Amino acid sequence: MSLLYLSDILKKTGLELSKVLLIRHALSDKECKKFYDSGNIKEYTQIQKKQRFPSPKRYEYWITFISNGGNSAVLDKCYQVKSYQEKSTNLVPKKFIDDEWFRKNGICFELEEIDILKHYEKRLVIDWGYSTRSWKQKATNEKEILSIQSKQRVLFSGYESLVLTYGELKEIVEDNLTYADWHLALSSVYAIYLIVDKTDGKQYVGSAYGKGGLLQRWSMYVNTKHGHNKKMRELICDYPERYQNFQFSILQICPKTMTEDQIIEMESLYKKKLLTREFGLNDN
């Protein structure tokens, strides 16, 4: 007999089990794996068949899991269901929707990621049970907790070799325990950095200075997607998911003894060398 069940943790968070739906994504499904590998598992979760949800208002929260071999599954995210739409939707980008199929069969849920189970994401492993074909189940169904994996600190890889996708940067910025060494290293320096839109190769040169150093500046891209840069903001306005194609790297590390004017002068030199004003994403 198990000593700990998923319901024990959910009750401690204050979630009412009758209002919670559990969803298990199987990576053995090629379509599911494609969305998962591209970082679009939320969009995959949002779009459902209407017949699967005859009472769409029934559940206020969805907790998603990722298959982990056999009957086990790892907790991925917890979402609050804000609303839903049938036949037409603006809740996800059009590229994720087969319009003809959606008008006949589709229902799209507006899911808002919440942090109530953040501590357990990618760590808590449950036994989904033998009914793995039942990919959605009530939270009142008891799920044995197999393990809660510890998170080991990830060592900083070095400034010169640092090349990050937006998703990788987001993970680093939001997890100051696992990436404690990264936070220390990135906040300890000023820098001239490069962002490349991998969609078309256009480049943006920026600089980081001030109390929080490079970490503080890059955190702004995680929070805003565009870092308050004019051309990036316009790009994301036209293509809302474009930020996911941004790649971040460092052109030059600068000591914190340098003045703001010196940093800006160096930034301007790199813009001149790379022609990012004429052909890239810099507007000044």
Task: Please describe what this structure looks like.
The chain is α+β, with helices and mostly antiparallel strands and 284 residues long. Helix content is 29%, strand content 27%. It contains nine helices and twelve strands. The strands form two sheets. Strands 1, 2, 3, 4, 5, 6, 7 and 8 form an eight-stranded mixed beta sheet that branches. Strands 9-12-10-11 form a four-stranded antiparallel beta sheet. A hairpin with a 4-residue loop joins strand 3 and strand 4 (72-86). Helix 5 (166-174) packs across helix 7 (213-224) and helix 6 (180-187) packs across helix 7 (213-224). The longest helix has 15 residues, at 260-274. It starts with 5 loop residues before the first helix and ends in a 10-residue tail after the last helix. The model has no long low-confidence stretch (mean pLDDT 92).
